[in-house]
What we know:
The protein is an all-alpha fold and about 170 residues long. The chain has helices at about 5-15, 25-30, 40-50, 50-55, 60-65, 70-75, 80-95, 105-115, 120-130, 140-150, 165-174. Helix 8 (about 105-115) packs across helix 9.
Amino acid sequence: xxxxxxxxxxxxxxxxxxxxxxxxxxxxxxxxxxxxxxxxxxxxxxxxxxxxxxxxxxxxxxxxxxxxxxxxxxxxxxxxxxxxxxxxxxxxxxxxxxxxxxxxxxxxxxxxxxxxxxxxxxxxxxxxxxxxxxxxxxxxxxxxxxxxxxxxxxxxxxxxxxxxxxxxxxxxxx
Length: 174
């Protein structure tokens, strides 16, 4: 039998999930909890109970927006976003299919854009995602145009001055 899931996730994420006493503050603040099956608090409990298959097949780890709201609310300073990222990495490594359609594609596109530009670029991400996924191409064009017109999303990407350093971080992680 392999490592206990909590031990593996603690090592990967640098967190101590056993400190969670399930106050539910993370779940109460999560902006995507309504779309999740379990929510952050319950998912941490499942990790502690070594429910590997249920956790790694869960859509929740792929729906996490990585916004760190959970981490800012946690009285024990558990960075649940880091835990979710570690769970996604472990799911990929162990060959689990993403629990949310196209989530792995989005994850890889995001990392690819950040690797190349040194930062995220929403227009590039959305364009690539729409072309490569089954998401209807024109279903949210109106919102995108409004964001562009208000100067919220630049049409053309720009490279970060730190793009080279960000690329080196990706190389070290290989």
